[in-house]
Amino acid sequence: MHEKASAPEYQGALANLSVNSSLEDVLIQGTEQLRAAREAGSLREMARCGLAVAEAHRRLGNLADAEHAWKASYRDARAADDFGAMAWALWSSGNLARQRGALTLAFRLHGYAAEAGKRGGDDIARGYALAGRAETGRIQGNYEEVESLHEQLLAEARQRGEARHIVWCLEGLAQIRRNSGRYDSALTLFEEAVTIAAEADDRRGYAWALRGVADVVSARNGDTVRALDLLTEAEETCRTMRLDSALAYNHKMRGNVLYRAGRYAEARAVYEQALAEFRGMGERRGEALSRLGLVKSQARLGRDHRQTAVDLDELRTEMDSIGLRHARAMVDRAHEELGLAV
Question: Could you give all domains of the chain from N- to C-terminal order, each with its CATH number?
Answer without folding.
Answer: 1-102+113-120 (1.25.40), 141-236 (1.25.40.10), 243-342 (1.25.40.10)
